[in-house]
Structures are given as C-alpha cells and as structure tokens.
TrEMBL record:
A molecular function (GO) term: acyltransferase activity
Pfam families noted in UniProt: Acetyltransf_1 (PF00583)
UniProt name for this protein: GNAT family N-acetyltransferase
PANTHER family per UniProt: ABC SUPERFAMILY TRANSPORT PROTEIN, N-ACETYLTRANSFERASE
Domain N-acetyltransferase: 4-140
Keyword Acyltransferase: yes
Classification via InterPro entries: Acyl_CoA_acyltransferase, GNAT_dom
CDD domains per the UniProt record, alphabetical: NAT_SF
Coiled-coil residue spans: none
Length: 140
C-alpha cells in the first residue's frame, strides 16, 4: 500500500476534480459540471472523498448520505495508479463516513459491462442484486 493522503474535498476544488474525472472516471453524468460539483461540496462537505499521492489527486469517491441511504458515486483512480489499493482505501474511508453518521448499507450503481469496477466493488464486500432496474427522469 502506497503512502496516500485521504481527505475530503475543499471549497474551490470543483475544477480540479472535474479534470481528474476526465482522466480517471468511467463516463460522465448529468452533474459533471462546475455547478454540480460546487453544490455537492457546499451541501455536504464530507461527501466528496479524495486520495492524494505526492501532492497529486489520484482517486475519488462520493459517499453521499441523505439521512436515509448511503449512496456511492464516482469511484475513480488515475490509470497510472491503479492496482495499488487506492480504490480500496477510498471505499474504507467512505464506509467510515457512513458508519459515523449511522448509515446501514452502501449502494452503488455499477455498469454491467465494467468488469474492473465489478471486481473492485466485490473486493470491497459489495454484492450485485439482480432484481432491480434503474428508473430515471431528467428534470431539465
Ligand atoms: C475500478 C477502479 C476504481 C479500481 O481502482 P484501483 O485503485 O485500481 O483498485 P484497487 O487497487 O483498490 O483494487 C482492489 C481490488 O479490486 C479488484 N480489482 C481492481 N481492479 C481490477 C482489475 N483491473 N482486474 C481485476 N481485479 C481488479 C482486485 O480484487 C483488487 O485487489 P488486488 O489488487 O489485491 O487483487 C479503477 O480501475 C478505475 O478508476 N476504473 C475507471 C473508473 C471506474 O470504472 N470506476 C467505477 C465506477 S462504478
């Protein structure tokens, strides 16, 4: 395991996080813009968890808690830094956060075709459930 610093995002880091996701994340979502990330950091400063190595942003996960459920998004590690335990360390930090606020179970959306991601979630103890489909409605 490398010498990582795990910390929550600071106000003003939205642009850095967005450019990190361009290099590291799988796809994009409707909230991947300055307004979306800034709102996340303002609304729940503990939710966006980052991993730094030698002063460089190398990993992220969003650990969102709304008082009801624990939702995980944007697990991503820089391609050059993969398979060194960074995702595992981020998911451990997310779990600590959830336990501290009384969360009971973590939920993540994982693309079926994303084999690497499936393995990483499974390694962290997450189990795939077959009996759901995602239902969505964009508001704008
Ligand atoms: C998925 C991802 C976050 C994993 O990050 P990582 O830091 O490389 O993962 P870790 O090193 O913590 O791996 C933990 C365990 O997950 C499994 N795993 C991770 N990547 C794997 C791969 N490419 N192949 C097989 N197993 C893998 C292994 O069991 C691994 O433990 P091991 O290295 O001791 O065998 C990274 O590959 C990534 O950013 N992918 C693109 C973005 C993405 O798909 N995110 C998930 C969205 S749901």
């Amino acid at each position: 395991m490398i010498d990582l610093q795990i910390r929550t995002a600071r106000a003003g880091e939205a642009a850095t996080v967005l450019s990190f996701w361009k290099a590291a994340a799988e796809g994009t979502s409707i909230t991947d813009d300055m307004d979306g990330v800034t709102r996340l950091i303002e609304r729940d400063p503990e939710a966006l968890i980052l991993a730094e190595y030698e002063g460089r942003l190398v990993g992220s996960v969003i650990a969102g808690y709304d008082g009801w459920r624990c939702s995980l998004y944007r697990l991503a590690v820089l391609p050059s830094h993969r398979r060194r335990g960074i995702a595992s360390a981020l998911l451990e930090a997310a779990e600590r956060r959830f336990l501290a606020v009384g969360g009971r179970r973590g939920d993540a959306m994982v693309l079926e075709a994303n084999e690497r991601a499936r393995r990483a979630w499974a390694a962290a103890g997450y189990q795939r459930e077959d009996h759901w489909r995602r239902w969505v409605k964009p508001f704008a």
